[in-house]
C-alpha cells in the first residue's frame, strides 16, 4: 500500500521549491542575482503545476478510487517514474531553460501522465463507473491528455514558423487552458462530488447532466479567449465569451444543486474547511468574471498589454482557487494537516502579493509611477507564502513520523 501521506508531503515539498523559485524571481529586482531570469520562470511554473498540483491531484484520485483495488505496486512504479521526470526538470530548467535535457524530462513527464491516465481508466472499480464524480474524474484525465497536444506541436512550430510565431504562443496557451480549466478544475469538482456521494448527498441526475454539459462546452469554447492576443475575428470573441458564460452557469447549477441546504443537513466539513470552501467559491467567481470580461475587446487588450494583469489572474487561479481547494480536500481526507496559523499566513501572503501584482498593472494602465519600495515589498510578501508552506510541511512531517513510531511500538 503506497504511503499517500508521504506523497502529499512530497507534493507540498514541490510547492515549497516552486515558492522558493518565485521568491528568487521577486528578489531579482532587488538584488543583483547571477541567474537567467527566464530559466527560473520555466522551472518555477513547471514545478508548481506538475509537481505540487499534479501530484496532489493524482494522489487524491488514487486515494478516492483505486486505493482498495490492491494495485499499489503498479501505482508506485508510475509514481517514482513521475518523480524521476520532475527531479530531472528541477535540475535542468534553472540552468538551461528549454534545451535538450529539460525537453527530454518534460517529454517523459507527458508519458508519465499518459501512464497514470491509462492506469486509472483500466483499474477504476465498476461500482464507481456510473457515478457523477467518476465521470468528472475521467473527463479531467481526458483534458490532461488533450492539453499535451500543445507541447507536442511546439517542436514543429519552432522548426517551421519560429518561437516568435503566433502559433507558438497559441500552443502554449492551449496547453495551459486545458491544464487548469480542464484537468485541474474538473478533478477538484470530481473530488467534491465524491464527498457528496459518499455521504449520500448526490445531486439529481438532471442537474448533473446540465452542469456537466455546460461545463464541458464552456471549457472547450473559452479556449478562444486564449487566442485574442492575436486580434482575430469578432466571431472568436463571441465564442470565447459564450464559453466563459457557460462555465459561470455550470458552477451556478452545481452550487444550487449541492449547496448550503444539503451540507447543513449532514455537515460534511469542519468549520475551517467550510469557510475555506466559501472563500474558494468567491475566488472562483472572481476568476470566472475576469475570464468573461476578457471576451470584451477592451479588456482583452488590457490583458495583452499589461502582463501583470495576466500574471495576477493566473496566480488567482493557481494559488487561490486550485491550492485552497487542494488544502481543503487533503485536510478532509487526512493526507495533510492544514494548521490554521500557517494557513492564515499563506492567505495573507497570497492576498498581499495579488494586491501588489494588480496594483502594478493598474499603475501601468494609468501611466503613473510605482511607490519606491514596490519591488522589496513584493519580495517580502512572497516570503510569507514560502514561510507558511515550510511551516505546513514541518508540522506534517513530524506528525507522520510520530504516527509511524507509535505503530512500530505497538507491533
UniProtKB/TrEMBL annotation:
TM regions (residue ranges): 12-31, 43-66, 78-95, 101-121, 141-158, 170-195, 211-229, 235-255, 276-300, 312-333, 345-367, 373-398
The entry's keywords: Membrane, Transmembrane, Transmembrane helix
InterPro entries per record: Cyt_c_oxase-like_su1_sf (IPR036927)
Name the record gives this protein: Uncharacterized protein
Origin species: Maribacter caenipelagi
